[in-house]
Specification:
Strand content: 5-15%
Distance between the termini: 39 Å
Family: Belongs to the short-chain dehydrogenases/reductases (SDR) family.
Pfam families: adh_short (PF00106)
Order of helices and strands: EHEHEHHEHEHEHHHE
CATH topology: Rossmann fold
Number of strands: 7
Protein name: NADP-dependent 3-hydroxy acid dehydrogenase YdfG
CATH class: Alpha Beta
Strand order of the largest sheet: 3-2-1-4-5-6-7
Shape: globular
CATH architecture: 3-Layer(aba) Sandwich
Keywords: Oxidoreductase
GO molecular function: oxidoreductase activity, acting on the CH-OH group of donors, NAD or NADP as acceptor
Bound molecules: NADPH dihydro-nicotinamide-adenine-dinucleotide phosphate, 2-hydroxyethylsulfonic acid
Number of domains: 1
Length: 257
């Protein structure tokens, strides 16, 4: 059954990776999408692809989620009937930087990861959830990670931010318990995207090695899980979902053949 046709879905970090695949899968189901990211050209390309292929509406917001004032203003700039009728929010934009020891990482790197993965989620949530509360209707999906459940060498700040996403997500679910709004934390393991290229500041070789010898999850795999979750009957709320490739058992245990 398709419960998503005609819904309006707001997706941060939609220019590539998990966010882009998620936008396409929602559009395939007949949902309109609001695509958020910092790279205008990629947003425009995706909007065109989605509108041409799926005949739904795609809106673009060129937006850095770490800038609270811009978050408010750009969301306010959406057509009123879209802004006031956001059915699904996917807080996906996020990143990790480096794998250095916590006491050897730079303050700039601490700030960038914390600002994007925690404050970005908060700013977007603060702007959109009240609109859902007003309608007593909506779905919030946050991209956590198995990194939020288990620390690993060099992962201090990233793991801490994803543990924070878990707590923010759980708190939101508690605060919305008397509403029809559902809240889910999606916690993937290794997904092959540009995540590692960003983490290793453009070092393609090092990024590739992250996924060497395993069949990593793909952005489409995660998108399928997100879309299927949001398509469940309205009384069903999956609180969190951890998913990993077959040859990954937890944050540290990977079999590379
Ligand atoms: P990608 O690097 O492929 O995509 C990240 C997306 O986030 C891009 O669209 C990027 O767009 C956007 N983004 C980054 N910073 C900002 C910002 N300040 N404002 C707006 N958009 C921003 O990574 P993934 O698709 O892999 O990651 C998506 C999410 O999934 C992240 O939260 C990540 O932590 C999580 N995750 C990823 C896993 C993996 O193994 N890949 C595993 C578990 C969780 P642009 O640069 O154009 O702004
Ligand atoms: C990304 C997964 O294991 O690279 O959240 O931290 S991992």
């Amino acid at each position: 059954m398709n419960r998503l046709s005609g819904k309006n879905v707001f997706i941060t970090g939609a220019t590539k990776g998990i966010g882009k695949s998620t936008a396409i899968k929602f559009a395939e189901m007949g949902a309109n999408v609001i695509l958020v990211g910092r790279t205008k050209s990629l947003l425009e390309e995706l909007k065109k692809e989605i509108e041409d292929k799926y005949k739904v509406e795609a809106y673009i917001l060129e937006l850095d989620v770490t800038k609270g004032k811009d978050v408010e203003e750009k969301i306010d700039s959406l057509p009123k009937d879209i802004k006031n009728n956001i059915d699904i929010l996917v807080n996906n934009a996020g990143l990790a930087i480096g794998l250095d020891k916590v006491y050897e990482s730079s303050m700039e790197d601490y700030d960038r990861v914390i600002d994007t993965n925690i404050k970005g989620v908060l700013y977007i949530t603060k702007k959109i959830v009240p609109l859902m509360v007003e309608r007593n209707k909506g779905y919030v999906v946050n991209l956590g990670s198995i990194a939020g459940d288990m620390a690993y060498y060099g992962g201090a700040v990233y793991c801490a931010t994803k543990a924070a996403v878990k707590m923010l997500t759980d708190t939101l679910r508690i605060e919305l318990v008397d509403t029809n709004i559902r809240v889910t934390n999606i916690k993937p393991g290794l997904v092959e995207t540009e995540f590692s290229k960003v983490r290793f500041k453009g070092d393609e070789e090092r990024a590739k090695n992250t996924y060497k010898g395993i069949e990593a999850l793909t952005p489409d795999d995660i998108a399928e899980v997100i879309v299927s979750t949001c398509n469940l009957p309205e009384n069903v709320q999956l609180t969190e979902i951890a998913l990993m490739p077959n040859h990954q058992a937890d944050g540290r245990t990977v079999y590379r053949g």
